[in-house]
Amino acid sequence: MYIAKRFVLIIAFVFEISLTYAQVSWSETAPGVWKAVAGVPENYDLLKASGATPNKEALSAITQASFPLDQTEISIKVIDGKTYLRFPLQKEEQLYGFGLNFQTVHQRGKILQLHVDHYGGKDNGRTHAPSPFYVSSKGYGVFINSARYLNVYAGTAVRKDSKNAPVAKDRNTDKSWNSRPYSDAVEILVPAAGVEVYVFGGPTPLDAVRRFNLFNGGGCLPPRWGLGFTQRVKTLYTADEVKKEVAAFREKGFPLDFIGLEPGWQSKSYPCTFSWDSTRYPNPAGFVQDLLKENIRVNLWTNPYVSPEAPFYKAIVPYSGSHTVWNGLVPDLTTQQGRTLFFDQLKNNQVNIGVSGYKIDEVDGYDYYLWPDVATFPSGVTAEQMRQTFGVLLQRYSAELYHQQNKRTFGLVRGSNAGGASFPYVIYNDYYNHEDFITALINSGFAGVLWTPEARASKSSEEWLRRFQTVVFSPMAMINAWASGTKPWSYEDVAEPIKQLALLRMQMMPYWYTAFARYHFQGIPPFRAMNLEEGFVPESKKENGSANLEENPYAEAASKEIKDQYMAGDYLLVAPLFTGQKTRKVVLPKGRWYDFYTGAFAGDGEVITVTPGLDKIPVYVKDGAIIPLMKPMLHAPAAGEKVDLTVRFYGEKPGSYQLYDDDGETYNYEKGDYSWREIKVEKDKAGKWRGAISAPVKGKPNTVGSVTFEFMTK
Question: Which ranges carry the Glycoside hydrolase family 31 TIM barrel domain (predicted)?
């Protein structure tokens, strides 16, 4: 009898917990951003790890939004020390996000465990940046602020109390039977007794993404040189070999802004000493300064595991985890003592002599590389939470080293997460599928991160050229030759087209720089999915919930998963070709589009087939687009250096463009030391196109020399 009563009491207690936290309240914590707190959230989460501060002024500038979901349809419960989340889904709703996925853009119908890991060729949630943020085609976003491994059922699980349950079908006789029935909910399991949940309003999917980025401080604004060209040299190169490679770039007329040194710059690596190798680099300070005199920055590879021969090894032992990685200590970067010991070594040994940035490796996985989930850390942060945020912590505190010196940096990292949008790092990995690289670039815009489809080596000159074309239209134009030693000119038969592409990257510097300024100040991802582009969804699908595909082939194409074309900045649609392809289809959104190279009309809300030839990557420009270009320099302009602009105008309707400007190297823009200048193109009374740029803003940076206009209309 006693046991029975106790059992009833336990059941009642569990029910009481569920009931208590099912009725949460939503409060608008920033313009268009609502927060709910379930149970007792953990002391450590993604936002605390990143230290992100919302840009409320920029958030308030976005179109006003109301709470986008029916709050009565949202269920949040805490049962048995775990939090159960449920959000409604409509029948025609598509989902995007859930991290940096490489093979899929549409996420509805997926089951994922969001888990920082080296990408293993499957979109199962284990990836370099498993951001627990998703976006709906209905124009809202949801973010779960947890540093745990989250289990996601994105429209896959059907509840018996579903208001829109699928109809049971007989597999024996009904050919429409489906092993994966329709589900009307996103359900997420958080292995913690509480969590913060955020909902981001629209009204468009892009607005929801913008709010997410601005809530996390806005996107990063790299230095101008970071948007130039970078070459990573072979692992064991010496100082003299690096200088010879830099000289070769100059002599052959290939642009170069920063050089990447791989593990051989350190006296020992895997684990690391974080100290220069005296045989390969006998005078590190002199070496770095010599390159700076030639406008070449130095970026250093490292991983964060401390060798027994590192100068601070003994001191950091008490502030490291219980388990090692490659027999190196794992510093607990959530402790002040651990951070100070680790980052002081980087500051004193490298940053203070002029090193401009880092490539942070091996903070993603695999499980047999990194510390196990049974590891412990002095701070009390669990091994799981440390795994989910270690890359974020390294980005945050290494970037601080440069912020303290008022010098911008731009680097590479292998692991990140939500909250890290403002950090000046681009994700890379060892996976090398070209098509999947483009899908990752598309998905990076949903995950609040940047991704580079780097080039390393190729089996043919055709592959090399195709890879290089996508490198040029990405956040970081990089050859990573740590193993291959490949140079831009290594494939002689395509060396000249490669050079022209590299020079095009430099010509487009004003356009790229403004796109990143929009990322920082307005939250607009510089590279993003077609699903975020106005006019991409067929009108009949938006208004009626379905489309007559027989009458409108475009509707069918646009409703499919688009994984191989993307938007770059405000005006450019990039449609890469891959090895062996001679032609491809391009889905153009509603509105008139023009060929980037010639200005010829390409189409309007239709599917076109193009045969660009080997030398061209198909790029299309919106009607009324303004593309500012500079002369093709071999280095990015120095701080305050003026450059002449050629402004291209495309299309038939008047255009307006806000050109961003600052000194290009410091953080003075955070104090208001920047300007936006309006470029306008319109027809005069005689019907001729005329262009104009507004006057420089008094007291603000002005790096614009003379301006000429090129009208690309045909």
Answer: 221-515
* pLDDT classification of 307: cutoffs 50, 70, 90: very high
The domain boundary, picked from 392, 417, 444, lies at 444
**Per-residue model confidence (pLDDT) at position 18:** 46
Residue 119 and residue 54 in one domain: yes
User: Is a pLDDT exceeding 80 seen at residue 551?
Assistant: no
pLDDT band at 538 (very low <50, low <70, confident <90, very high): low
Provide the token pair at 40.
Answer: 């007792």
Q: Are 633 and 506 in contact (CB under 8 A)?
A: yes
DSSP codes joined into one string, 512-558? HHHHHHHHHHH---SEE-GGGSTT-S-HHHHHHSS--TTT-HHHHHH
If asked whether residues 142 and 252 sit together in one domain, one would say no
Neighbouring C-alpha atoms within 13 Å toward the C-beta of 473? 29
Using CA atoms, how far residue 699 sits from 61, 318, 695, 706, in Å, is 25, 51, 12, 19
Which is nearest to 594 in space by CA: 637, 649, 529?
Answer: 649
Instruction: Note whether 186 and 105 are same-domain residues.
Output: yes
CATH of the domain at 204: 2.60.40.1760
| Whether the Cβ atoms of residue 118 and residue 364 lie closer than 8 Å to each other | yes
Domain C-terminal end among 395, 424, 444: 444
Residues 362 and 231 both lie in one domain: yes
pLDDT score at 9: 45
Contacts with 167 (C-beta within 8 Å, 6 or more apart), sequence order:
none
Q: Is residue 544's pLDDT more than 90?
A: no
Q: Is there a contact between 89 and 184 (Cβ–Cβ < 8 Å)?
A: yes
Q: Which domain holds residue 644?
A: 625-711
**408 contacts 665 by C-beta, under 8 angstroms:** yes
Q: Is residue 245 part of a domain?
A: yes
pLDDT of residue 2: 46
Annotate 254-285 with DSSP letters as a single string.
---SEEEE-GGGBSSTTTB--SB-TTT-S-HH
Report pTM.
0.94
| 142 shares a domain with 68 | yes
207 and 235 both lie in a single domain = no
User: pLDDT-based confidence at 698, cuts 50/70/90?
Assistant: very high
Is 149 part of a structural domain of the chain? yes
Q: Is residue 270 part of a domain?
A: yes
Residue 547 banded pLDDT, cuts 50, 70, 90: very low
Number of structural domains (the chain) is 3
Distance, in Å, from the CA atom of 517 to the CA atom of 220, rounded to the nearest integer, reads 8
